[in-house]
Write a structure and sequence with these properties.
about 110 residues, mainly alpha, about 0% strand
């Protein structure tokens, strides 16, 4: 059994989706999985811009593929650490809670 890493998240009363968002944007393993999924997009685009023989194209495609590859690796290595900060900064869980509460209020009327 692995070691448990403590982390903090906000539990919203009567808003299970908001609690889910808060929990998984602060849980280290979930942040790593999100970073891997997000880093796949620029890495896949950089692979598409490369030729089939493994050498980069000349000109703009070569530069773009190199930049996309660096961006993908940066997101992979550093992205997981910034997801909790981005979640807190842009209040993702709070926005989900507001939408859930508004939906419940409308359904009660």
């Amino acid at each position: 059994m692995g070691a448990k890493i403590p982390y903090r998240y906000t539990k919203f009363e009567n808003c299970p989706r908001a609690t889910f968002v808060s929990k998984h944007t602060h849980k280290p393993t979930s942040c790593f999985i999100i970073a891997v999924i997000v880093s796949v997009v620029p890495l896949a685009l950089s692979i598409l811009l490369y030729n089939a023989n493994g050498h980069s194209s000349d000109g703009f495609a070569g530069v773009a593929s190199t930049v996309l590859m660096l961006l993908g690796f940066f997101i992979f290595f550093i992205g997981g650490m910034f997801i909790p900060k981005l979640s807190d900064r842009f209040e993702w869980a709070e926005k989900v809670a507001r939408k859930e509460i508004a939906k419940k209020v409308q359904s009660d009327m």
